[in-house]
Amino acid sequence: MRVASQLTFCSPQQILRQTVVEQDQQKIVTAIFGLDDSRVESARTLFFDGIISSEISSLKEEVSPLVLRKLVKDYQYIDLSDERTASFNVQAGMPLILDFGTTDANVASTFLRQFAADLESLSIFDIIAACTYYPALLLGQSSSLTVGVNTDLLLWENVDLVNKRIKNNTKIRIVG
Questions:
Q1: How many domains does the chain have?
Q2: H and E: helices and strands count for the chain
Q3: Per-residue pLDDT of the chain (176 residues; tens, 9 = 90+)
Q4: Residue 62: in which H helix or E strand, if any?
Q5: Do 103 and 151 have their domain in common?
Q6: Side-chain half-sphere of 110: how many Cα atoms within 13 Å?
Q7: Are 32 and 40 in contact (CB under 8 A)?
């Protein structure tokens, strides 16, 4: 399977434009290349409007509360699945982790819409990193979208690509 979009989030340091991500049947990324470098016919490529990223990681789902507190000591950790989280302010200076309490993209989309007003000042890339990159990094998993990684590919759609912000109707879904 080959998918392409305007932007591909590989890591906070590597955001690619007009890029194709190719996966095999086992969800292993086999190639990442620019449309301009198209060495493969684009007829079998699915084109999407939005941003492609690797899958969501949830610290809350993976580790005990005690381990979680130790892991996130140098991060601003916000548990969006906690019913007590009604609103929050993101503080500058510490990397952000947004935990949906699940890796399910549909549930994550619901929380994203619910907290859109709290997240509107953040870049979409900061939000994606907070849901995918930093949690995976802390869990010792592959945090960057690179060749050889086994991951679901997510599409972040209905994003304000000009201003790099989420909108009230931003949605996350698995592609492929």
A1: 2
A2: 6, 8
A3: 999 999 999 999 999 999 999 999 999 999 999 987 666 556 788 999 999 999 999 999 999 999 999 999 999 999 999 988 888 888 888 899 999 999 999 999 999 999 999 999 999 999 999 999 999 999 999 999 999 999 999 999 999 999 999 999 999 999 97
A4: helix 59-62
A5: no
A6: 8
A7: no
128 and 148 both lie in a single domain: no
The verdict on 88 and 125 lying in the same domain is: yes
The pLDDT value given to residue 39: 62
Q: Which amino acid is at 52?
A: I
Residue 148, strand partner residues: none
Domain around 30: 2-55+144-175
Residues 110 and 164 in one domain: no
Give the CATH number for residue 164: 2.30.40.10
Residues 6 or more apart from 20 whose CB is under 8 A from it? 2, 3, 4, 31, 32, 33, 34, 35, 38, 40, 42, 45
